[in-house]
Design goal:
It contains eight helices and four strands, in the order ββααααββαααα. By secondary structure, the chain is mainly alpha-helical. The chain has a two-stranded antiparallel ribbon with strand order 1-2. It has a two-stranded antiparallel ribbon with strand order 3-4.
């Protein structure tokens, strides 16, 4: 097959050399191979907080969108998607929103998650500076993505998780004392059945 191109200088149709075509195709294939290899080998290994390893990926989203909200369903969903430290995560959601705060009622956001555009997320955007979700399940999935993104899924014990919360100075506006916040979520965790009703 012969290929031709328009030469704008000579204003003629000229034949394209088959050697040039062959070399061009080889260069494109080589570039594709190098891009694929480098992306797979190094793509998620660099960057302080931007790595999500294969073992951190969340279980495929389950079809529970029509399940009604209850504190027990919330807690069970945390366990179903294998979120790390579900009792403590439930305690955080309970402490931070009580499942009746403004953010919970308007944004379905029990964790006070802010804009997550710099990491993988399932937010539907932001309202008043905080992420909003269509369902309470989406808020949990987003927290799981957050855990994976910042490396919390690699922590082995609840004590390591609590240490992380202390170092990052997690607290809520009603109790700005970090130690009180940690004590409260440990108390909720230890008496979780009482809080699930």
């Amino acid at each position: 097959m012969k290929l031709y191109r328009w030469d704008s200088k000579s204003l003629k149709i000229v034949k394209v050399s088959s050697v040039k075509i062959f070399i061009s195709i080889l260069l494109v294939l080589f570039w594709c191979f190098v891009s694929f290899y480098v992306g797979n080998t190094y793509g998620f290994k660099y960057g302080k907080e931007s790595k999500i390893m294969e073992e951190d990926v969340i279980v495929i989203y389950q079809e529970l969108q029509n399940e009604t909200f209850s504190k027990r369903n919330f807690y069970e969903y945390l366990k179903k998607i294998n979120i790390k430290f579900p009792e403590l995560v439930f305690a955080q959601a309970y402490k931070e929103s009580g499942f009746k705060s403004y953010l919970w009622r308007h944004n379905r956001n029990p964790f006070g998650m802010k804009d997550a555009s710099r990491r993988p997320n399932v937010q539907n955007g932001t309202q008043e500076g905080f992420g909003y979700y269509n369902t309470w399940q989406e808020s949990i999935l987003d927290y799981a993505l957050y855990q994976s993104y910042i490396g919390l899924s690699k922590l082995k014990t609840e004590e390591e998780y609590l240490k992380y919360l202390k170092e990052k100075n997690y607290y809520d506006v009603n109790h700005p004392d970090n130690e009180k916040y940690l004590k409260d979520i440990k108390n909720i965790r230890d008496n979780i059945e009482k809080y699930l009703d």
